[in-house]
Design a protein that fits this description.
Blueprint: E1 2-8, E2 13-21, E3 27-31, E4 40-43, E5 49-57, E6 63-68, E7 88-93, E8 101-110, E9 117-119, E10 131-133, E11 139-146, H1 156-166, E12 184-188, H2 189-202, E13 212-217, E14 220-226, H3 231-234, E15 242-243, E16 245-246, E17 249-250, H4 254-263
Antiparallel strand pairs: 1-2, 1-4, 2-3, 3-6, 4-5, 5-6, 7-8, 7-10, 8-9, 9-12, 10-11, 11-12, 13-14, 14-15, 16-17
Amino acid sequence: SIVSIHFGSKKDSDFVGTGVVIDGKGHIVTIKRFLSDYNIWVETDKGEKLDAELLGVDSETGVAVIKVKESLKPVKFCNPKDLAPGDLLFIVGNSFGLKNGISISVFSGRRDDDDFLQLGNSVLPGNSGAGVFNSNGKLAGIVSFTLGTSIFYGAPEIKSLLKKEFRIRVSPKLEVSRGMDGPGVVLPQNRMMELANEIIKYGKIERGWLGVFIKEESGEIIVSDLVDDGPAEKYGIKKGDIIIKYNKKDVQDIQSFIKTVKETKPGRKVQIA
């Protein structure tokens, strides 16, 4: 299910964004933008106001996990890799204070540099952390950020689909609302769950670090400098070295190399050539 997230007094609070219930243990994932860890509470689609605790935040992606004591119905997941450009996606969030408001976009494709999913249009304000579902009502990911006009659809031709998969009645009148500039970017649910599970277990996300400064020249990744006493310096990497392989795999470009290093668990030994 989808919840709205607030902080402060339940009588006079600040609305922050949208959260997605990921299991039956009260864990909720959202994107922290202006989320305070002071007096967080959530409101369900039934109007229940529940106290919540902030478990942790990933500073890089903005993924945050909060927890309520009550058991809420979790969403069902789809495989984001099954999405094809042009597929309809349904963004379920709490924009403009509308509980479980639905806007529709299309899947544009995957971003090459970070594997995020890109929408064909922007998202409405208040939909940070909103669930992005496929046409079967299964979660593909959550709204992460906006790079636009968003449209809130109530067209008759999709009324039956929304009623069947999301159990939401939609006015037959088409309503149009402007969104934030730039297309919406979605964190895939599989990556979201990896981060969420680590936050639930450890309270934070730990990423790999080599202690090198690198640059790309003529397609080669070159070490331009080293951090004193960093892992790279300790194991003999020198300024001017060309990095060809990381853990026996060819290094393609700077972005993919940085991504691979960050995804390596701290303390793990790797081979660099």
